[in-house]
Design a protein that fits this description.
This protein has two helices and 14 strands. The chain is mainly β and 254 residues long. Strand 5 and strand 6 form a beta hairpin. The two termini are 39 Å apart.
């Protein structure tokens, strides 16, 4: 692309990949999150959640060429890649095919059940995890072609519970538990589901940001601060011990 065109594109189109990162303070919650004070949990199933995906800013006074629009669309698709269908509760999610279920997505409209010429059991559990319809496989699906050198080489497809070689999409954090893709010692992308971390106090809870922000045991990853995080003073996220007895990510808008 000629330099003049690049300059014009930069002046009329802005693309910002917006992730659901509780630590960034960009989320909207059905429970108001104070800028300071006690930590306020963000319930994955009760919050409306932020609009996820690229924010595209267009100068209305300039002409956008087809190539410019295509560049924006490509960036938007890359940011959305791998995200599951939007949901608020498990009832919002269902299988793509009632006879040969393979993918977890938005539940289809109620319809008369047709007879199946052939059928297969579901590959796992289909439910709503952090506002995305998510498949938890009984047995991870291997993909020998998914070669990698690091976690950034692995892309997760939430609805299919598969890992592939590619750039990770903007999937957002895991409040308590959920799927991740990592680069295994074998040099292949591997799907896994870290379970909820049991706790009796905040001292048991820490967090990691790779490959997705999620709670981890403080025994495995020492806490970045040796006390409960002071909102917007010590940081914008913390891992707390929820009443359920499991570690949970909380965040503030700072």
């Amino acid at each position: 692309m000629p330099s003049a065109r690049v300059a014009r594109l930069g002046s009329i189109v802005g693309v910002a990949a917006v992730a659901l990162v509780l630590g960034s303070g960009c989320g909207r919650s059905s429970r108001p999150a104070p800028a300071a004070g006690p930590a306020v949990e963000r319930d994955a199933e009760s919050t409306t959640g932020p609009a996820i995906g690229p924010v595209v800013l267009v100068d209305a006074g300039a002409a956008v060429t087809a190539a410019d629009a295509a560049a924006v669309a490509t960036a938007a698709a890359a940011a959305r890649a791998g995200r599951g269908d939007s949901c608020k509760a498990d009832v919002d999610c269902g299988w793509d095919d009632p006879c040969m279920p393979a993918r977890c997505g938005r539940a289809p409209a109620a319809a008369a059940m047709a007879a199946c010429d052939e059928s297969a059991p579901p590959p796992g559990a289909c439910g709503c995890v952090d506002r995305q319809c998510t498949l938890r496989r009984i047995a991870p699906a291997a993909d020998p072609s998914a070669a990698c050198r690091g976690d950034d080489d692995c892309a997760l497809d939430v609805g299919a519970a598969r890992c592939a070689a590619g750039t990770p999409g903007m999937l957002g954090p895991l409040t308590e538990q959920g799927p991740i893709c990592t680069c295994a010692p074998s040099g292949q992308c591997a799907w896994s589901w870290p379970d909820a971390v049991p706790c009796t106090s905040w001292r048991d809870c820490s967090w990691t940001r790779a490959p997705r922000l999620r709670p981890v045991s403080a025994r495995a990853v020492p806490r970045p601060v040796a006390h409960p995080v002071a909102p917007c003073k010590d940081g914008e996220v913390d891992s707390v011990c929820a009443p359920s007895g499991t570690c949970r990510i909380v965040g503030w808008g700072c």
